[in-house]
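Problem statement: downstream parser choked on a complex file, so we are re-checking the raw output for the flavin-adenine dinucleotide run. The parser issue turned out to be on our end (a line-ending mismatch), but while we're here, posting the original submission so the record is complete.
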Amino acid sequence: MRILVLVKRVPATGGRIVLADDARSIDTRYLGFVVSPHEECAVEEAVRLIDANGGESVVLTLGPTEAADQLRDALAIGIERAVLLETDGSDWDPVATAGAITDAVKDLEAAGGPFDLILAGNESADSGGYQVAIRVAVALDRPIVTGIKALEVRDGVATARRQVPGGADVYELPLPAVVAVREGINLPRYPSVPGRLRAKRKEIERIVPERRPGGPTLDRLQVPVEQEQHVEILGNGPEAAPRVVELMRELGVL
Amino acid sequence: MSAVLVLVELAGGAPDRLSAEALGVAGGIAKAIGGEVHAVVFASASEADGAADAAPALGGYGVSTVDLVAGEGLAAYAPAAWAAAVTQVATAGPFAAIVASGGERATEVLAHVAARVDVPMAANVVSVLPGDRWRVTRQRWAGSLLEEAFLDGQPRLLTVAAHAVPALEPSASASAAPATVTRVDPAITDADLRARVVGHDMTAGDSISLADAKVVVGGGRGLGSAEAFAMLDELAGLLGAAVGVSRVATSLGWRPHAQQIGQTGTRIAPDLYIACGISGAIQHIVGAKAAKRILVINTDPDAPIFRRASYAVIGDVTAVVPAISAEIRRVRGGG
Ligand SMILES: Cc1cc2nc3c(=O)[nH]c(=O)nc-3n(C[C@H](O)[C@H](O)[C@H](O)COP(=O)(O)OP(=O)(O)OC[C@H]3O[C@@H](n4cnc5c(N)ncnc54)[C@H](O)[C@@H]3O)c2cc1C
Ligand SMILES: Nc1ncnc2c1ncn2[C@@H]1O[C@H](COP(=O)(O)O)[C@@H](O)[C@H]1O
């Protein structure tokens, strides 16, 4: 079977978001980069499915030249090929992103055969548009389910579970299909040292994508004002326990 | 002339909480553009009569017309089928905007509509300013960052961020005219039913109780090991609390993901959140935004989580938590 995984490079923002001077992007000078935890799980799921069924896995991202790092992270845990739709690093809206990814899927399929499964994250960590995977699926006329926490593939049918209050909805869809997953579907492995070395040597296929108009169009970012709390220090170390328990009584939680 | 269409999910005959939030935003847009609010409501064939009875009361939420979509193909949820029906209603419009709630299904259905009609969609919007170009403010990073954006397209498609705007209260006045109800028989194709719910598994998941817990005891990397979580379980047991964890605790395999609090985990809303050995990364804290009070137990008084805390104990969690549990036992034993 052939599987394509879609990932997006985002900054790991830590304890506080600081904006660039033009307020149109996050100041990333001192930050590392990752992909959404949902997408890490999509990558892990692809590796497991190919281990079990044989075939080829490909990871694809649309992003700046540095997004090659996130592709290598995926190669390091067992994805075979990586494709970078290289941009100038500016913000691409979901319509433009999905359009470019759809173009690339068609090209990749024309050259290498169809993908039985396209895996994505449920939402990107930064912009959280909740739509790129759905747009790609609709453009390719393939069924899609989102929010998936368990996935099985057998005899050309994907069975997928989505959490709902009190349990899970079970979906079934024929392949080829698109599935957007959530963190918790699996526990991603850490890359091994040989895995990292292998990933380093692999070539990343680069494509310059065509950007179509779309939206919504980012104008300005704004960090919500957080009311700084006044912190009452109850004490240091275990000696604080009586005061903590007194507080619990006052709050009525004991 | 121009109207706003809202996707409404009914629970017990009334809009559910997230739909009431969407109705509030839709009402604001309708007022700004001088138009009406229409609602689209889904029902399986067997629910259709009940929904038809309940729908006129949407008039109290400012809705003038309800398009009740009912039919065979809607017996089981299928996102593309729902989207086909919304698209059908939308095409009969015209509508200036289509608004959905921040619910999982509503968001997904609207994204399908956006893809079919080929217009932009803004997810998790908190405010809308119609005009020559519509401006929306929407959440990024699960609400840790706001984005002002231009939203174009005919119609404008947007979902309303969950629990970020007030839910619309129904008008009690008898003058609220009942909504007119029109039944829509949607044209659903086999292709629309390729991905659909075929069953339910009611054995899974305990994260619901985490979301509803009055007290949550949380643990992160500062616990140091999977074994150390036994002391959190103990304290949680004494308090009748749920245990929640940071992503580090799940990534290291110390705890199941169902217990993760945050952007890619569960949102909690307790009266008290006791955060032990957790630094307070924005992706964690965003899941605890609705907590009334946070008590931090941490060795580092400069950790970002102190900025969100009401109370703090500075110290080693592996010493402080057992001492708290012992003290609870002592005061309970002593009456
Ligand atoms: C896109 C994205 C999504 C994410 N989603 C989530 C999410 O849903 N939930 C989530 O939690 N994280 C999420 N993260 C990860 C997040 O950014 C942080 O990495 C994570 O929350 C840190 O976990 P932590 O606080 O346990 O660990 P650390 O940041 O390492 O903090 C450990 C804390 O323990 C304290 N400590 C150490 N020893 C002791 C001791 N003996 N006693 C007391 N205190 C001690 C330290 O002072 C420190 O403050 C996400 C990240 C990204 C990029
Ligand atoms: N720039 C991108 N490159 C590759 N995949 C992406 C990109 N943006 C979004 N995706 C995929 O689409 C999913 C949903 O993204 P979004 O619609 O932005 O919430 C993500 O989790 C990714 O799997």
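For whoever reads this later: The pocket of adenosine monophosphate (ligand 2) is lined by residues A 6-8, 36, 38-39, 61-63, 94, 97, 120-121, 123-124, 127-133 (CB under 6 Å).
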